[in-house]
């Protein structure tokens, strides 16, 4: 039996999208539920694939099936192709399984010939209308199927109008139109060296081939590459008998959404034009009316349309985007599909559909794209105020949100200004760890250098702070304290505004609107929490981060990086004193100064977190990060510290490393300088004991040892921490419980996880560093070749943004498995940017982790992603 | 039933070393084979452990077993402890399972008391001898058991001698000796507040306890830590009835080896003293005679001794180290053990024992410590000439061998001098990649900075070149061209000599002797080759390396690093031109200049290797390694290249990386600059085709892609290489076969090896980089904390020296397994320093690799290690 290449609409249904394309399947479905759809047929996507297999030719079998089905269509409509009395006219449209712009345009009125046009005139009693349709069809066919430049037809038309002194097309007479048809056919012949085809069947086959060819035009290929759509799936072609919205005052055409696509409000939303075809609505020459006006023009049709829209939404159980035409008082549905909407609308519609009983909570949760929540979680510019703003430059949208403030060119001055109560924007060539406090107190960060993974970008995203990075048209002079863009020079204290979601930089201030989780958003988050199995924690180093994260629903802290506290201006002096110590005693002296400050940090955090768990990581970065490197700063430090410059330089020299990423950091510091780890353990335990008693809660501190690669490292440090903790407990007469765990972020730790688990109460996968070491990519340096790799197709996504499940993920799975062999109930989470990435979160869910931890502003994204992962993998 | 804590010698045997200690077990064994051994008993190592368990006390049970066995010993000897006519005297010696210096000294003549001394006098008819023995015993017992300072006894003795104007001990009369005994007992009382014990049983128990205590003295603990001997195993105590070598002219004592321990010659080798005790031989007051002289003194005893030595060697099937005593014409054996020997002796003895039928070839192969071959594989100083040399400094023994030459302070001048035919020593503060050629042409390298893993050390070991590194007492002034050591200043052209095995630096020149594999060494290597399953290849970048390796038995090249060829002075200019190119066309121009040079390199290599396989790796290091970094060199380069300094600096800046180890290198270069890979592929294929035809052999080039982490990388580059190779083959009308494989050196490659194998004809594990990434250790930086880790016991060995089997090894195993799932017969080897480490080689054998590749001078070590691995794991 031969394959079925062609389906009448009435033979298909909505489940056949991959065969009939989205448009075709939905037209079939509408017929199945008895909605008024002009009959038609669909040539399948498989026919497209076959077309290419045959060297861009329609096989005889496909051609004969098209012809057979045309005959059936003629029977259905009672019209005949090319008939001199009642000709069948059709539209031809492409329709792939996935909505895909960039492919062939629609052809209307196919079937018109010198004979059929007369038949159409007779049948409609409107000769002018028939010839107007004919000349439009010739132009469209020539343009779309044979690529005859459109302007050639337009010139001919303008010619006639000029000759007759017409201003509008409507002034053309029937005779004019007949002349134009002659001219157009001549153009067609001159361009193609063939006559304009007078057999509708031939017109149709040419149109079908054109649609298939358009599947591989440059725009379509680019689009598919961009959105990861396979090139092999092909497109279908829909051939539908014409209905005319331009057949007089009882005809019309329109588009509508079953709900408001901006707000989600449950009210049909759309517009229409009477006596018009679809292209007139799009062209924008006449202003369409809002859909409710249809109630005044044709109340019965309006009622029928509202009823139909309702049926469609009920049937598809989702907001629909509908096209319709009214022909001489009769309503026809031409298309329905799931409607595109804003995140706000998506949330409201989903929540209300649950309340209406239309969909389940699971479905509601599954309908929201987690990444789309991002736009709701950062300050935004007030839409009205934004209209008056002038964009002066565009950089990389490095960290989303909107910010307005006075520009400052050093971290110190930015901090000072913040303390005076000013809103500030930190403007730097590029940032370094010493700028952390300046970044933290500013409203936004602008850098002229660096990419999406530069220090500024990474830290800003971590802080949930607006950042525009690598804005190369801005010249930043940190000495003169100016930023120059073209002719414009801004100086310290001038206002600018940044949009971290677009990369736009504006001159002057713009009002911003703060984000909040409430209404439908809040409701949907509640439901997500009901479904998800993964806990959601946050990476928070400061009380401010912690508060923000709790507001967004974080259930604990998964990673508190204690080193960020070391950079604060008030304590960096003591930290540096510790680093340049000659011996343990000196170092311990300096650490004694730091202890009360660290304790206070932790107390503040514990107060905000209350009984929620908080994992605090011991010092991680190499010590040289805390020491200045340029001449001037060294001289200053030498004065402050009363230490000779030469000695300082020696120390800086001795701390230098070729590959700091793989150097003396993490637990390696704690082992070579145990006094640092002891100080930190003491600060954590003292803080927990004091806050537990002050607030009358039971805090169970989680102390995390970073960068463990061998079980012996954790064994030694576990002993050291326990010794310190027990001493503090004895001093304070406390029976505090505490946990000691480790980051799993080194490949060796993954493959020897069964050994390490023996000394760990919990694990937290540090997938940032694990990705660096598993791939051998330095995050600071890999930008260059990662983008090259994406271009060549070696990498599909940046493995620092979404976890590489095949490689890095395999190590994580191995580690979980080995660890659970030893401790089946061990608590295992993940911190690092992957904790906020939906695809990664689904992977972590499947891997059996207990929680993910992400930056505060990713918490809602993570909650939703975790819920979707749980539902998908039930 | 109670445990047996004490064994009579006649109850034990050689297999009980862990219970009876080495000495005790061998004494038992000698009795079993009817050799004349004075009877005795052994208190077991378990008794030692029990002693510590009891809080450093002998349990009643142990004491009573000692006493019971003493009684049996009295019966055996017919003597009685403390007897007034025929007293039993014993020696007490420690004896652990593992030979271990640093423990308790021997106590002789235990059992002497005021009564027994008279009995001894009666029995021997020599009162003076009896009292002389008594005073020696008191001193030894006081010193060894109770730590009474020896000098106190010596003073008392000297006192009597002075008073009597004696010059020698032999002048002391019996009465003098009796007085001395009184004085010694008084010293004992004054020091210990107790009387010198007059019950032999008590003396014995005190001595046994002292031996057990000495197990945990500081020296012993240090020794065990150093040699990885468990602290828990304890020592045994041997109590043996005394025989006297100092009972007149028919008595004597000696030590001997069954073969010459320096040369391995099969001839008993040793020395003896008549009328002396063991300590006299050691003390060196009298000069002992060589063992063959015994034939003149006591021919029958000599014959018996030679016979006994022969029996022992036949019985133990190994060269023995024997102690003996002759008491009044009767021979007694006091100890036998496997004799320590030089590598040369070990080889000769092993080979000759096989020829004698004493041991099998397998045993011979197993007897040689692979690492010991090292001393035979490098030039050595002529022993006679060395005697006259003056050492002026000691640095780290960074790369073994001996070298003599004129000093030069820059690579350029060293190269120039070598071209003039001078033997040179390159002296630098530290070396950098730019010094490679200077290092290569010099005889040896001396640096004043850097450790065992500094650039100089690593590269020198790779080259098999003598290097003394981090010689901090030498001040190197590269500007003035002087090296200063204390008062001595040496200038350019002065001679020095280096011993890379000891770190010694000598002033002046010393003759050197070149290594060769011949004689017994050669024979043993042949046997090793019969047993081993692993192939042995070499890492060789130059024809010189390749020749050396073949001489040492390499079967192919496992790693040829093409970048080393880039540094040669004649081509670095073209390489730099390539790097600073603005576009592909410029770069291709520069590459065109490099192509013929690279081709010539490969042709030379292929000519030397003949039909042996050679794996050539594409460019690996980041490009910035080829560009100078200091101001002066940049200015010079700018002139040479006619490129503005600012542009050069921009390029250098843009190439800079935070973590070059994880940066833009390896196949990442080949993908971003495909023209480089194309040039290299062309050079390799052209060279192979030309040499195949010139030499009429079939070369199958193996082209290796470094640093692959994703299968897509190899997929893309494989295609590129094939395309180039096929083009060359067409041009040259050749049907050359070639293989394309990859380094497995990134953790991700290991865990996705099933994917990568699809595009690889072979694998070579790059365990250096794999170790760096699996541990997260930068080899350039980790020195500091690796040594700290070894001290704390976190690392047992440096994982860069011996592969970490648990972690890195697990990834290798996984990769082998996954790769063989796809290609069961794929050829897999290992390159990197682990390829020359015996423990690592055994691991690679077990993992099922096809070959190991190591530096030329490790090839014999690898051959032997591979054979031992095969024999052990049969």
From TrEMBL, chains A, B:
EC number annotated for this UniProt entry: 2.7.9.1
InterPro entries named among the record's database cross-references: ATP_grasp_subdomain_1, PEP-util_enz_mobile_dom, PEP_util_AS, PEP_util_C, Phosphohistidine_dom_sf, PPDK_AMP/ATP-bd, Pyruvate_phosphate_dikinase, Pyrv/PenolPyrv_kinase-like_dom
PEP-utilising enzyme mobile domain mapped to chain residues: 422-503
Broad class of enzyme this protein falls into: transferase
Gene Ontology MF, one: pyruvate, phosphate dikinase activity
The reaction(s) this protein catalyses: pyruvate + phosphate + ATP = phosphoenolpyruvate + AMP + diphosphate + H(+)
Keywords recorded for this protein, A-Z: ATP-binding, Kinase, Magnesium, Metal-binding, Nucleotide-binding, Pyruvate, Transferase
One Pfam family from the record: PEP-utilizers
Lineage: superkingdom: Bacteria
PEP-utilising enzyme C-terminal domain mapped to chain residues: 519-869
Residue stretches making up the Pyruvate phosphate dikinase AMP/ATP-binding domain: 60-288, 306-356
Named cofactor requirement(s): Mg(2+)
Gene3D superfamilies: 1.20.80.30, ATP-grasp fold, A domain, ATP-grasp fold, B domain, Phosphoenolpyruvate-binding domains, Phosphohistidine domain, Pyruvate Phosphate Dikinase, domain 2
Similarity-based family: Belongs to the PEP-utilizing enzyme family.
PANTHER family assigned: PHOSPHOENOLPYRUVATE DIKINASE-RELATED (PTHR22931), PYRUVATE, PHOSPHATE DIKINASE 1, CHLOROPLASTIC (PTHR22931:SF9)
Name by which UniProt lists this protein: Pyruvate, phosphate dikinase
Organism: Sedimentibacter acidaminivorans
